Amino acid sequence: MISALLINLPKSTDRLNFQKHQLDKLQIPMHRLSAVQCDDFTSEEYENLANGWQRKLRKTEVACFLSHQKAWQCVLETNKPWLILEDDALLSIKTPEILHILAEKYQDLDYVNLETRYRRKWIGKKNVKLVAEYQLRRLYQDRNGSAAYLLFPSGAKKLLTRAKKSAPALADAFLGQAYELNAWQIYPAAAIQMDQCQNYKLKMSLPFTSTIVSANHPRPDVNNCLDFCCFKLRRIIAQIKMGLRQLSVCQIAEHTFVPIVMTDFDD
């Protein structure tokens, strides 16, 4: 069985307890990975890390990216695939079966996203059946979601190589722009974040507040005009790359929402 690598802040004991309960019910082994905290880097280090993306990142967003990077390093060092989870991920009851099939038959993949966030994705028209309604479809373009994904050592190596050459970004944006990944999507999705329960008409019994975006962590101001222009230029370049990517796959992919099987989610 593939184990879950849970990214969790020391203070978030309610989330940790929720995941222990959920993963125990699903019989998925769990290893807790202590998340990077804002206090783990200085103000100077923050400035060096926060200004290389399409806008200035919050301290919490930098910490989130570094936490995922820490998880990628763990995947590479252990040389085995892990289900990387943020601690507010809600999983389908079919997740163990999906993981078992992927581990047994699809070791040549880099990355498999289990999640959906009520936004369209570019996914392949062809599919490989896994279990029940669940399929494996090629993922060509994604813009949201880093709460639940299966990462293989080959994918971890590619992401860490990219991280050496690129500045930190929103974790899901960084993953979505890593076109070198042999990336796939579970369809219907086998995971959502708790903040998406309302969109998918699921009862939310444990409404966790965001540890990334909140009133306590407002979007920071741009340092100067030069940084502002650099942010805009990077955003334009990223949009052009996304457009070219979509043009290159439009014959073999579709731009569609990834649904969930509501009865497979038991909170």
Topology as a string of helices (H) and strands (E) = EHEHHEEHEEEEEHHEEHE
β-sheet strand percentage: 15-25%
Q: Can you tell me the overall shape?
A: globular
How is the CATH topology named?
A: Spore Coat Polysaccharide Biosynthesis Protein SpsA, Chain A
Q: Report on the biggest sheet.
A: 10 strands, mixed
Low-confidence stretches: none
Question: Class by helix and strand content?
Answer: alpha+beta
* Quaternary: single chain
Question: What's the mean pLDDT score?
Answer: 93
Helicity range of the residues? Answer: 25-40%
N/C terminus separation? 22 Å
CATH architecture: Alpha-Beta Complex
Number of helices: 7
CATH level-1 class: Alpha Beta
Strand elements, count: 12
Number of domains: 1
CA radius of gyration: 18 Å
Walk me through the structure.
- This protein is an alpha+beta fold and 267 residues long.
- The chain has one domain: Spore Coat Polysaccharide Biosynthesis Protein SpsA, Chain A (Alpha-Beta Complex).
- It is 36% helix and 20% strand.
- The chain has seven helices and twelve strands.
- It has helices at residues 13-26, 43-50, 59-78, 95-105, 153-165, 171-176, 225-249, and strands at residues 4-8, 30-34, 82-86, 89-91, 111-113, 121-124, 128-131, 134-141, 148-151, 183-187, 191-193, 253-256.
- The strands form two sheets. Strands 1, 2, 3, 5, 6, 7, 8, 9, 10 and 12 form a ten-stranded mixed beta sheet that branches. Strands 4-11 form a two-stranded antiparallel ribbon.
- Helix 3 packs across helix 5 (153-165).
- The model has no long low-confidence stretch (mean pLDDT 93).
